[in-house]
């Protein structure tokens, strides 16, 4: 788990990139590189967005209607970046 944000409904949203595995100090990830939502009331976890290389930061808009996720997979060694994309959940 990399970044975590808590919604006003009590659900916990998090990203799960593979940085520790890439650096050699964590085992192979058990979950795909996605954005997840944990519902503590039900004890359930579900993927809410996928298609990310390395999802990193996560936050909500002030009204919590929009989730922002940064993807550091699009930043290259030379400092250039790929275009952004919009995903709807």
UniProtKB/TrEMBL annotation:
<dbReference type="Pfam" id="PF08450">
    <property type="entry name" value="SGL"/>
</dbReference>
<feature type="domain" description="SMP-30/Gluconolactonase/LRE-like region">
    <location>
        <begin position="2"/>
        <end position="70"/>
    </location>
</feature>
<dbReference type="InterPro" id="IPR011042">
    <property type="entry name" value="6-blade_b-propeller_TolB-like"/>
</dbReference>
<dbReference type="InterPro" id="IPR013658">
    <property type="entry name" value="SGL"/>
</dbReference>
<dbReference type="InterPro" id="IPR052988">
    <property type="entry name" value="Oryzine_lactonohydrolase"/>
</dbReference>
<protein>
    <recommendedName>
        <fullName>SMP-30/Gluconolactonase/LRE-like region domain-containing protein</fullName>
    </recommendedName>
</protein>
